[in-house]
Amino acid sequence: MKTTAIIVAAGSGSRFNSDKPKQFLEIGGKPVIVHTLERFQASPSVDHIVLVLAGDQIERFDQHCVPKINSIVSGGATRAQSVLNGLNAVDTETSIIAVHDGARPLVTVEEIERTIERAKHTGAACLVAAVTDTIKTVVGGQISGTLDRAKLRRAFTPQVFSADLLRRAFDDTDLGESVTDECFLVERLGHPIAVVEGSSRNIKITYPEDLAFAEALLMK
Fold first, then answer.
1. What's the pLDDT tens digit per position in 186-198?
2. 8 in helix, strand or coil?
3. Which of 37, 96, 104, 93 has the alpha carbon at shortest distance from 67?
């Protein structure tokens, strides 16, 4: 089965308070996005990569550093629209599509491989990690209940799907800010999504302190 990874890195970094998008800031001597791409370049199951960048970053990016990149496309107004732009660039020979946040540079090749393999058998798989904090519900400024964290998982990426299923999930759908991941769209189709347990190290770099934390983890 041919597998294509869509790496979404079109964010502006508005929450990062930086002139440069967070995915182009350096950790360990290279940009965050390059660390991320290298993990998928090293994954034996990934045949091609579609990279989604902000329009003004496309010409600046040297795709030759990652030979599996066969297309770079411009992102949209929301994350979901950016994924759709990447999806439209995936060739028709692809059977499996993995979607990954460019700002998650610490995903491992082993996690990528396990999630892809699970999706090949089930049609949909999501890399997750356990919730270790106690989670409360709040109403009117007061705690109203405690959730059973044994039933909760944090949804990470990659999220991997059969190509046909993912395309159906994006058909005729409102792709506004409320769509925060691909599993949300596939859930609405009623298709089961297998979970693949991963490491809490697979953080998404969102705030400046995340960059320092990721660098510390990378050096271990």
1. 999 999 999 999 9
2. strand
3. 37
